[in-house]
Write a structure and sequence with these properties.
Helix content is 10%, strand content 44%. By secondary structure, it is mainly beta. Strands 1-3-4-6-5 form a 5-stranded mixed barrel. The protein is globular and about 55 Å long.
Length: 154
């Protein structure tokens, strides 16, 4: 049986990206993103709930994140949930849930050079980068001859 493992997150970075260079020369970038939602509890008091997500980006996306992302920036990430398990020095079983990003979109804000982050990242050569979506044009209205009921093709 096949399944779907897809995560979509839109949130703010809680830390600057941490860059690791692998022995092969490739890069891995990790950082945390906070997503928040608010609701009114039984007493009518507004409550905000924040979830933290550990993000991992590889190769081309890692290069973009290293160059353009910093703490406080808003980012849209799509990826997969990955659970890593290991035994620590004291012999205790540990696990961590990460999101392995496979596409990223920088959302708003100004970069350190005064250019829009989205414009700067769109000129990047990574083929994993998802550019900001352009508005979809509205198709012209379809005109029907007569009252329309007799002209249907089926």
């Amino acid at each position: 049986m096949a399944g779907v493992n897809k995560v979509i997150l839109l949130g703010r970075l809680g830390s600057d990206p941490e860059v690791r260079t692998l022995p092969s020369g490739g890069k891995v970038v990790t950082f945390s993103i906070a997503t928040s939602e608010s609701y009114n509890n039984k007493e009518g008091v507004k409550v905000e709930q924040t979830e933290w997500h550990r993000i991992e980006l590889w190769e081309g996306l890692a290069n973009i994140a290293e160059q353009y992302l910093k703490k406080g920036d808003m980012a849209y990430i799509e990826g997969k949930i990955r659970t890593e398990k290991w035994t620590d020095k004291e012999g205790v079983e540990r696990s961590m849930v990460k999101i392995r990003g496979n596409s990223m979109q920088l959302v708003g804000g100004r970069g350190p050079t005064g250019t829009d982050d989205n414009d700067a990242a769109q000129s990047s050569s990574s083929n994993n980068y998802v550019p900001k979506a352009a508005p979809v044009p509205t198709p012209p209205p379809v005109e029907m001859a007569g009252n329309g009921s007799d002209d249907l093709p089926f």
